[in-house]
């Protein structure tokens, strides 16, 4: 006897028991068997059919009354059966897509892997968390031959798969740059041309690009419409916006960028972020940039990695662990 | 939150009144309404953002798209009455330098 017949038998038994005794336990049995039906993908009209057979066994003399009414119900259930089959199909499709995105997310993670380089006298911390599976934020570190370090942080409009695809393009464009160091403004201008030629007219990327020279303590930087970072001056004991003007990447082919300079002294700190940080909300209201500074101040005695971790956890909690946008925060501190 | 779009057009001038939030969910609706207008040769499209309380980067993307199209078609695009938070987004991204952002609004009959 296959399990379907077994279920049919159980169903008939439960039904006759319930008609006779109205025993709650029979109802419980019905609940259990309905779950088993769903697991085995039994359609609603098949269940009605089971019911008809069972009733006919119990009341063979009422065949003429039972059959027409039940056949009517059977017909009425057919569309539900079709809808259920469609639902099953969609569920399978969805699982398929989900696993494909998982593979893509893993690939992206591998592609985007960037190691925090060891730079003497510089303490670097970074956290980047996607709102969904794929990350539209990007950051990377490159240590140049002359001992300086390049730091890029970028944000693609939107999120999810399209943003991640655009990010991969940026990554390859940057990898193809010559080994000799270019100025931050030249790098943004070149990237802008790549992006402008290769993206949808409504797509754009914001990027902040910086180079730090440990020997001189100088930080050169340019911005392509990126959310301004903060500079903490130990001497002044003050946080200052790192203001750098420049158009986002991908809008105008001939855009040029300016380059600015900051001199880092011991215990000065640079904070770079994406708008996933500034667009955090508390009770339906956006946080202010000052709120971010306040949180950083609270943890600034820790190492850079500890600071970014704590700040992230703070805002994650603030939003009930539901990120609306990809969140990236980079902090570096001059320690000697 | 939703986005209401009301368009008044006369000859080559279109005024688009927006009200609500422009985000990843409402941006497609704005795109559908706005982009065809920016293809009016020698036209002027004015977008009134007075009642737009929030816009994210997806919304900026729609306006960048509209700007590119309007340049292609010799059409003027002007954004008016931006709230501070929305204006800040245009300033940070450098778009205020290449877009016509004006604080006054004209009527269709002017």
Characterization of the model:
The complex is a heterodimer of chains A (336) and B (110). With 336 residues, chain A is an alpha+beta fold. Chain A has helices at 3-21, 24-39, 44-58, 63-112, 160-175, 184-198, 275-278, 289-299, 304-318, and strands at 122-129, 137-143, 149-156, 205-213, 218-224, 229-233, 238-242, 260-263, 269-273, 281-282, 285-286, 327-334. In chain A, helix 8 (289-299) packs across helix 9. The longest helix of chain A has 50 residues, at 63-112. Chain B has a five-stranded mixed β-sheet. Chain B is of the alpha/beta class and 110 residues long. Chain B has a single domain (3-102), classed as Transcription Regulator spoIIAA, CATH 3.30.750.24. At the A-B interface, loops of A face helix 2 of B. Chain B: GO terms for molecular function: anti-sigma factor antagonist activity.
List keywords for this structure.
heterodimer; A: 336 residues; alpha+beta; Methyltransferase, Methionine Synthase (B12-binding Domains), Chain A, domain 1; Phosphatase 2c, domain 1; 2 domains; 12 strands; 48% helix; elongated; B: 110 residues; alpha/beta; Transcription Regulator spoIIAA; five-stranded mixed sheet; globular
